[in-house]
Each structure stands twice: as C-alpha cells, then as structure tokens.
Design goal:
Length: 601
Amino acid sequence: MTVRRLDPVLVDRIAAGEVIERPAAAVKELVENAIDAGARAIAVTIAGGGRELIRVVDDGAGMTPEDLELAVERHATSKLPEGDLFAIRSLGFRGEALPSIGSVARLSIATRRREAPQGHGLVVEAGEKGVVRPVAAAPGTRIEVSDLFIFTPARLKFLKSDRAEAQAVSEMLRRLAIAHPEIRFSLEGEHVSAFDWAAEPLGEEGLLRRLGRALGRDFPENALKIDAEREGFRISGFAGLPTFHRGTSAGVHLAVNGRPVRDKLLLSAVRGAYADVVPSDRHPVLFVDVGCDPRSVDVNVHPAKSEVRFRDPALVRGLVVSGLKAALAAAGHRATTTGGARTLDAFRAVFSMGGSGNAIPRPAFPETPGWSAAASASYSPPQSGFSDFAAPSADARAHLAEPSADALDRPLGAPRAQLHETYIVAQTREGVVIVDQHAAHERLVYERLKAERARSGIARQPLLLPEVVELDPVDADRLVAAGSELESLGLVIEAFGPGAVLVREAPAQLAGGNLQRLVRDVADALAEHGTAGSLERRLDHVLATMACHNSVRAGRRMRPEEMDALLREMEITPNSGQCNHGRPTYVELKLSDIERLFGRR
C-alpha cells in the first residue's frame, strides 16, 4: 500500500477522538476557554446528556471578527504569546478544542467584545467553516454544540446513557466551580440537579462557602484549613475531619494552579496522609490546590489535561502528606458534628414508635450494692408504674464525685456516668458528650506508641532464645537481602539455612507477640512493595493491634477519676476523635437539639 496524506477533515476527526471523547470533555474545554477569557459568570445548558445540545454562555472578553475566524483553525490560540510550553498560565493552550468539536458536531459561536458596537457569529459543521457574519450578541461569548458525534457514528455507540453522560457533565463542572469560587457557575438540563452558585469573594471564607455548596452543607463545620509551603510549592484548601468520610473518592478534589486534576501522585499522597485515621474502604472529603511556578510542572502530558508531571514529585508528595497530617494532628480530639445528628435521628425514630402501645417487658430493679436511700436528700420511693424498668448499668450519682471547677468548660466536659460499662456520659456547658471508652483509649495507647517510636527510634529487645522461622526460599532470601533496613526498624534477622531465617532481636513493643506471623507478614510486604519501607506501615498496623488489646475494654467499670483522666488526655492527643479503625470515639449532642427532641423548643 502506498503512503498518502490524510484529508484535513479526517485529521481533525482523529484529533477530536483524543480531546473530545464524551460530552463532558467538550463542556470542559469550552468552560476552560471561558475561564481563560476572564469570565465572571458561566452558564451551561445540556440536552440529551450533551449529545443533542451543549450551550455555554459567558461574560468574558469576547473575540474580534479576526480572532473568531482564526479560533476554529487547528492549533490557533492566544494563550502562548511566547510559544513557551513550560510556562503555561492558562487552562487551555493547545488550540484544539473548537476545531475538534467542529469536526464531529454542529458548532455555532456568537461573540462580542465589550467595547464593540455589535457581535459576530460563525458556524462550523462537519469541519467546514462558514463565513463570519454580524449578529446580535451580549458582551462575552455564546457557544452551542448540537448533534455531537453525528459525523462519527462509531463514537456514539460507545457513549453511555443520557443520564450517565449528564452526570459526568455535572461532576466535571462542579470540579471547575470548586477550583474557581470567584466565578458564578450554573447548570441546567435533563438528568442533572440544576444549580446556580453565586460568585464568592476571593479568600478562605469564599472558598469554604463554595465547598459547602459542592460537598454538602455539613462540610464547612467539619473542615480543617490546609496551608503549607516548601521550596517553591504551596498547598492550600480545606480537608474534612477523618470521621467525615464517604464510600467513594468522589469527594476528593485536587487542583494544580487552579486546574482540576485526578493525578495519581496526589491521590496517593492523600491516601497516605489519611491511611492512619480513615478505614481502608472509606475516602476523605477535601479540596487541595497545589500552587507553584508553571515551570515546575508539566501539564501537557495527558490528552484531557487531567494528569500532570512535577519536576520534583517526591517533594510535592511529601508536602501534601505532611501538610494534611499536620492539619489532622492540630484538630486534636475533634470529631464530625454529623455523629450527633445521626444519634438524634435514631432517638427520633424510637420516639416516633412510642405511641404504638407495644410495651417491652423489663426485669425488676435489683438492689444496688453499697447504696441506700439516705445517700440522696432528694430520694423518693419508686412509683409503682415504673417497676418494670431495668436498673441502670452504672451509678449515675454525679454529686458523689464532683468534677473540677473548669471541667464543664472543657471541650469534652465533666464525666457524669458510665453506661453499660462501655460508654462515658459527660456534661458540657452546651450539651452532652457520649464517649466509647474502648475506642478512645485504644487511640490514646496507639498514639503513645507511635510517639515513642518517633522520639527515640524503635527499641530492640534481644530474644533469650532466637526464633527460627521457616519460609519459602525466595522469601527468606528477600528478607536477608533487606537485613540492614529491617534492623533499623527493630527486626534483626540472619540466614539460617535454605528456606529459613533466625530472629535475633525484635521490636520491644512487640514483646510476647507472634514473631512467626510478623516475619511472614514482613516477607509478604517486601514481595508486594519491593522495599522495606512498607514494614513501617506494617508495624503501625501491629502497634494498632497491640493498642486494641492493651486498652480499656468494654465491660470494665471505671472510677470517676479514671473517666476524667481519659477525657482530659483525649483533649490533648492528636487524632483522638476516631479510633484506629476510623470510627468516631465520641458523639456530642447539643442541649438545644435535646430540648427540641423533647418538644421544649
């Protein structure tokens, strides 16, 4: 076969397949152009999931007739004045969006510069450009795309349902709106939840309001400020508390210099920062923007510009991880406010069944050891109508152990009772706090163990009788090869014949533990990750397991002073708002909510 040059229209359609693979991609390119044009209001309308119609209207700078005619040509752009691909300061820069869309759909553009007396319009159909004509137009640009992919039927077959495509458009627009809160965004059409988000003032307050609209009204009061800087890179934004998590990663929003991305390096950094505080099957909710010199990042590495390549990826990853961890640690004992709301909802559900008349039989009151009626001046004999109720599982006479004078003003309040030998009930000035004693103490023990390791390194303990661990020969060789690295982490091993290793020393924190299982887990980690660095994470897991077994167990009755000490330590310990498994350690009920529950408000 002879080599021939392809038809220009066919070339455009091939290029369009790389840039415009679905309606959401077309909307993204058009909205990014509007942002680059300085728009302060962008309205998007779709029909048929974006296949039938996409309309994007902005109040940006607009175009002159000459610019309009050139804008639909391939690789024509106003965003690289010096032709430097390493100093890109705009969202778009390739000059491919409009010609790519025009080659696979019917494209109509009407634009007008603010100082111009009239606007101008242009139509492109199947790659054939029409004539620029005067039209009535408001300042800015109005672009309509109809019958997307009508000239490439094969592409239509790969599109999902109208609902799925519309949801993809909505998600994409939300990500752009989060990254640019200073712009008003609106969306309307079929199969989407319409929204119209007003422009917010520049600054943290405006960004937090926009995040509240996009991520839920509960997010602002459960968000932590992110602000860290290192060697020319800066991260800013807001991250949700560890207990404010979701079942998918849809709540993770990342940007680089205002460009929304789904970059693997940044996603990995987020997972690493939250690994110790969020369950493995849950995902945090946050927005982090990485700011840097454009020359320090390459945004021209992906057709959809959704991934980037940093000049120093290790520096960026370290900054994101350390910045997020610092914010989480500074949050101390804070837990999500939604925990109290869910508790009140559960109460309301029970109360709503109160009129059903289905009485639940209860055993009679047993005698409470060591207590007499004289112990309380306000004692009165129990009324006969209450004889069927069960006895409380803890002595709730708070006046016998008065809390310190300032305890009610503390974040977690003054302990008043222990229920079911599992939950501590504390009183604050503004409500009630219920603490899971085992989950809370588990986290406290774990944080103590980690702090000790960071402060003085992992203490090693020689074994009185070295332990032989038999393994697969390949695993044994892998462990011996990583011996020096393992020794720095507290595990001293040496070869002991084919398919076996001898453990001489082990981390002191693991004294009495199952060394056979530990060594096998380390071998598996080395096989999976290839380095001993994963052992540190494995040791974190082991320490968490130890903390779980060495902490106050559910079912143990605590003295008032023990409960008070537990609450006070929680208030000064990082990450104490959730246990080692990511579950909340306490819930707080506001007095006003409790009063509404009982109809007092």
